[in-house]
Amino acid sequence: MFDIKQIRIFALAAYGKGLSGGDRIFIEFARRWSKNFPVEIYVWKEGAKMLERQHLGIFNSQFSLFNANKDYRNLKVHVSKLKNLCKLGFLFCYLTRIIEGIRLGLSLKLITNHQSPITIYSASEFWMDSLPAFILKLRYPKITWAASWYQTAPNPFHGYLENGQRRNKYFFSSLFYWLMQLPIKPLISSFADYVLVNNEEERKQFSDLNKKGRMIVVLGAVPLEEINKFLITNSKLLTTKEYDAVFQGRLHAQKGVVELIDIWKKVVEIKPLAKLAMIGDGPLMGKVKKRITMNKLTNNIKVFGYVFDGPKKYKIFSKSKIVVHPAFYDSGGMASAEAMAFGLPCVGFNLKAYKSYYPQGMVKVDIGNTNAFAKKIMELLENYSLRIKIGREAKYMIEENWSWEKRANEVLERITTNK
């Protein structure tokens, strides 16, 4: 029995066409929680567009009125009016959203009593999501604050690299990330009622809360019902392979997307007609395309950009033989899990997070060893029976434990029990 009346979600960090893991999680949770309880989401214009693309409802042209999908009548969305301030650049927009988050924390009026308990969920550890939740917790101590901490920033001296070797470690980007998390961590440690993390390794970041049983490990999930419906009506696609491998994820420093081009060049040296499909968008799109051209791989790599959930993306997965996930620094990896639901074996680097995420279905190589990565790709492409065997293990693992319905209910039950 869920002891809850209201859920408030702060997601002002949501940005861009693509979906981060944290964006995906809060959207899928809201989709399911709002079927039974009132859920209110605080976003800005970019976040509102994201919700609309995920079919939770539609906004009017001014983004002032939200009409929820008929299945989510309990869902209400508040869109912060940042006017055109974000046109002045990313940094200015970032600071503006932080100020807006603080304003919301100071101005929102909550009615809290035993008959109307409120759970506040900060969708990310970024300041614009965490600070309003923290301020409301100070103002209303009886509310429950469930704080997301889905990835600990890397050591700024190491950059985006868990260990191993990497030519470009993206020190500046990792330093910014580390500095951003530095003041938020003690606030969460001292005031959050629950902390949601992405894997078992992340429990160590909040040892006191872990001892109190306040840590919740949120392993990823995929839309299994949609995928299975697609496979039932399009089963023939699985026998027609157009791509030797597929990648899905943000084109970000963490994900090893530039190195993936180098890896694929090694594959093409052995298999000249090998084709890679890349699904995703992000800050490294320009570098990825430049690398493809520089290595004369335009006939071997097709960059789709961001592809929304649904038939178009599922067709690409169906027509692929394996999925590659060359992240150098990662806390999970839901993007590759979606492809694994189609029976595709995965190749990835041996990151700590993958011990709990991918105990099977993923062939792992030493971090940074691009030669070994390319060899494993070739091994799976040339050995049909091995590819099918590991692919079945991947599909079985996803079907057993990667349902969004299951994940949303698990988390809801934890964060809404009496403290």
Automatic annotation (TrEMBL):
Pfam families: Glycos_transf_1. InterPro entries: Glyco_trans_1, Glycosyltransferase_grp1. Gene3D superfamilies: Glycogen Phosphorylase B (3.40.50.2000). It comes from Candidatus Woesebacteria bacterium RIFCSPLOWO2_01_FULL_39_25. Coiled coil: none annotated. Residues 235-395 form the Glycosyl transferase family domain. This is Glycosyl transferase family 1 domain-containing protein. PANTHER family: SULFOQUINOVOSYL TRANSFERASE SQD2. Transmembrane segments: none annotated. GO terms for molecular function: glycosyltransferase activity. SUPFAM superfamilies: UDP-Glycosyltransferase/glycogen phosphorylase (SSF53756).
